Amino acid sequence: MHKKTTFIAILLSLMMLLSVGVQNEVMGYVSNSDEIEEYVNIPDKLFLKVVNKNIDKNRADDEKVTKEDMLKLKQLSVYQSDGIDITKVDKNSKRESIIPMYKLDTKWMVTRKMKSIEGIQYAKNLEAIELSECEISDITPLKDLKKLKYIEIGLLMFHL
Known about the structure:
The chain is of the alpha/beta class. It has helices spanning about 1-30, 45-55, 65-70, and strands at about 75, 100-105, 110, 130, 150.
């Protein structure tokens, strides 16, 4: 009987220790739940590259973007801006493009092949955007960006 009682006592002690360990693990998970990052859905891979390079030119082209990352954006351009104000750039200056341009079947038409700016609606601090030579047909993601003062969308190709 003594062996049985000892065995039960040891078993109960182990169960209590395990339950405390599980409880601490669960509490740790719950306490860290505020730190879960929310990612922005940016389906166009070219636009994702543009966003990443505007956040930091050293970011990976396909790095997931959080809502917090989007709040850092004050300007967004298809060109490397290196911290310059895109609203004051000399349009004749040579700037490096983030995404390449492709010549179409005509003599003068080019495209960057970027088709969507879905996800830009999370850039609530965006003040200026420059998207030229793209194939964007829907600019409604810009409509609720209250701080947006400058929009350059020259030479866009709309597919109606």
